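Hi team, as promised in this morning's meeting, here are the two structures we talked about. I've kept the exact order from the run log so nobody has to guess. The first one is mostly here for context; it's the second one we should focus on when we meet again. Sequence first, then the predicted structure tokens.
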Amino acid sequence: MILVAALIVAGISNAEMNHAYDASSLLAEQELQNAAYTGIHRAAKMVLENPDILQKIKNPAVVNARLKAQKKFDTPPITSEHFGKITVETWGERINIQDYVVDYGGDPDVAKLVSDINKPKEAYYFFSRAQVDAKNMQGNLYRRASAYILADDSTKTIHYLELPMSSYEFEK
């Protein structure tokens, strides 16, 4: 009877410890995501102060032309309460952005292209990755972020891009 009670108490203790790890992991992952956003903010500030940092791509259809035009920004590491040192890497390039309107109709997982709003606009595109050597996991833990700023936008608003969901499709 005592052995059964001890096993039950140990099981409850382990379950509660898992809940504590989940809560701390959520906060840690949010710190990591914020570090990725910080990389974009720092790079965007540099580009807005001097737009010529990012070269215009002469022939965007050629992959090597795009690779040569991409710039890796010098992003200092960020100190985190949970992780210690978070390494942040940020890249940027000039791209063209095309606005479009979609209709989800009856199925929220399928988007039907309704129209292109207007011609492509020049934008500064940023990609950032925050990475840390995870203590509780084997290997590295990372989060990424991507965003763009329209070159002719006087407000210089940063538009963050979400990663596509695996279940999301365009109607063919």
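And here is the second protein, the one for discussion:
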Amino acid sequence: MTHSKRGAIALMITLFFIIAISISLGIALKQVKSVSTEISKQKFAMQSSILVDDVLNLLKTSPDLEAINSVDTLFIFLSEAAFIPFESSGVKMLIEIKSARSKLNINTLVDIKGSALVPNPAKVEALSQYMAHYNVNPSYTDMIVDSMSKIKADNSYYSDIFNENPYLFRDYIASRKHLETINDFYAKTYNENTLQKINFEKLFSFSKQRDSKIDLNYATKETWRLLLGCDELRAEQLSLGAGAYAVEADLGLAPEEILALHRFNVAYLEMFLDVKVTIQSAHLSSELRFEYDMNKKKGSNFVYEI
């Protein structure tokens, strides 16, 4: 099949999907309006959760999404369906759909070996080098590793982050807010603001699945800089090739860049969506984010804020 035909099919899939989701959610938004103006924040949260369930069910039952099975069709779908806005009865809803594999899953810095969690030396070193570009103290990487190493009976952590935060979750880094707690501790400890220069939103994702890969067709500039230890110009060049990578040779990497890349688990077609749903009425707003596995038709890593 030619590239143009694949593109046409993907665009048709996108249009059908948006039409289907528009019809279903238009009715649901009216229900959100009826409760949000009359009852409490708790009820709004519950109604928002139900609305998100509707989004998830639409993803699960959409036959159009099943036709997406190549680098071309996935890339065009994500390009066309990145932002889907709705509005009904004064309630606004925005669905953002992106690749869930465009960034480094921060929890892959630690490997599972038997019943133990062990820092991956190559990945940890890559993070340390990346942070060094921003003059971040090497102890920051220690804090990150400690925060995904579970409870240690002998208290053999690399940093003292848990002395001040004894109840901080430490099985894995669960969310952006969790990372911000670590960042705040670092800033307070060293009395510096170097971390503010880093775009963590474009650098890290947060999944407890430690075997997740990075889809190089969607890798952000920040991710490329971390993967290869390259400068911003080189990272931008590679990110502009998005959608054209099927094998390693397509990347056009130098030998030393290939060696750097091999420190990480990468792929060229990862069927995982990052779905963000924002709902806003006159007085209340909520946001829910989750990862959707297109092959298993399953949502995971739900993070809810109101």
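Starting points for discussion:
The chain has two domains: 3-100+271-305, 104-267.
Residues 104-267 form one domain.
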